Amino acid sequence: MLALLAGLLFSLASGASWRGVRGQESPPGSRFVCTSLPLDAAPSGCPLPPVPMQGGALPSEEELKATVLQLRETILQQKETIGNQRETIRELTGKLSRCESSPGPDGKPGTGGWRKELPKGKDTMGDLPRDPTQVIDQLSRTMQTLKDRLENLEHQLRANVSYAALPNELREMLQRRLGDLERQLLSKVAELEDEKSLLHNETSAHRQKTETALSALLERVSELEKGSSAFKSPDEFKVSLPLRTNYLYGKIKKTLPELYAFTVCLWLKSSASPGIGTPFSYAVPGQANEIVLIEWGNNPIELLINDKVAQLPLFISDGKWHHICVTWTTRDGMWEAFQDGEKLGTGENLAPWHPIKPGGVLILGQEQDTVGGRFDATQAFVGEMSQFNIWDRVLKAEDIMNIANCSTNMPGNIIPWVDNNVDVFGGATKWPVETCEERLLDL
User: CA-to-CA distance for 423 and 364, rounded, in angstroms?
Assistant: First the structure.
């Protein structure tokens, strides 16, 4: 289009000399300077004569030159406007492509770009709203607005310049250009409408899938609640932690008082490798490893008191039920380790003269890095446990043997193993367990 106008200007310039704006001949060697003006501004001191329509007298050479210059400025402005609209279309198309390629919750492309939540009142193309229907409607409205603006440009072109005075070739080129843009816009709007319908169907299917999963979960919770009422007595249950994760665990509701000695006993069943993980941990503010029993990786079972470590000669990762007891006293940091009623090890200097701090959190199945949280899946216990009891004294070896062989029932005086004192989280479960004699079949 610009090449055509340049040729026309060259032809006019070679056929006659330029005249001044007031009808005077320009001096030899002078140049004609044209200053671009807005379409609606009246030129100062440089009025352009009207161009007659078809059927009137032929315009003079000066009038043709002025008309061509005016057309050139108008077309340059229209070209710039069309370029801006084309850039807007490219930007919208790019953003739509990013929305289509963003993965959704199910891993499929084209559904993930709508999940970002915006602040209230914000609805921009840079940050898409949460509802995909709103996005498609917004894009459709934007495309329709662009189409209307292009049509207005065509009407302005007809109104502001003598459309009949344009060469036929230039007029046909403008018509083809506007027609192509209109078809592209209509095609994009149609594609967006199809995408809107597709996204609506996918959103409905995802919502139905989520509701089905929630219903199944509620049924599972109801079954577990019914199962918990089947316990024969408050202590006849076990906690199952079947996976090595950082979210399956049990929590003891009661906490510990200040202790100068303790005995911890529990039944364990695990075949996890390497290491059974952390059967229990007790954390207090300022010390996450106040009391911890852990078998991590290829290390032996360790007892931690105030972050001090003693290795215990216990071997329990054979998939059978084992009765484990550890005792400790602040006096000289003396400790003992029992397996199935038999003392297998003893030692001293484990956090001597350090009283166990009160008010902490007791967790079953996870090692705490902060009080009550920040679990590490590699240190999680995998297996089953039962009869977790704590006393505020060192039990006699005879008492521990009687508990292990089920000849006596001796609940902990600080932490007893009762159903309403144990909560489970993250998929850990509580199940009825048979009598102590049946657990002894594994021994």
Answer: 10
